[in-house]
Amino acid sequence: MRKIDLELVVGLFVLIGVFSLAYLSVRFGKLETISGGSYAVYAEFENAGGIKEGTIVEIAGIEIGKVKSLSLSKDYRALLMISIKKNIPIQEDAIASIKTKGLIGEKYIQISPGASDKLIPDGGKITETESLIDIEELISRYIFGKVEEKK
Q: Model-level pTM?
């Protein structure tokens, strides 16, 4: 009788441990278990270097979504599918920019809201984008004398 009680207690302890680990993984890993609270918006960039799935999307320093997927468009530009929280409307004249955080250089997408009354619908596209400035390319152009002023 005592062996059955001991096995039952150990089994319950293991189950509690497994459920606790699963809860912590979802809670701290920021995994989405239900994706009903967001809508998709697309943005095209000349260069999406450093951006990957799960990259944070912010407005005014507040996280409003994440990059869900990356692919190439027909004209070989980076096409990003961004998942935005349902309660955050994005104006059709908003600007999406790739920015860098901190010293390590973690990349994120910064959306600057527009002034338009029209909103981007689910599956719509942000037309104004700014790619990250490639410092290595600028230094290379400067060293080899190929720096040109844009007019």
A: 0.67
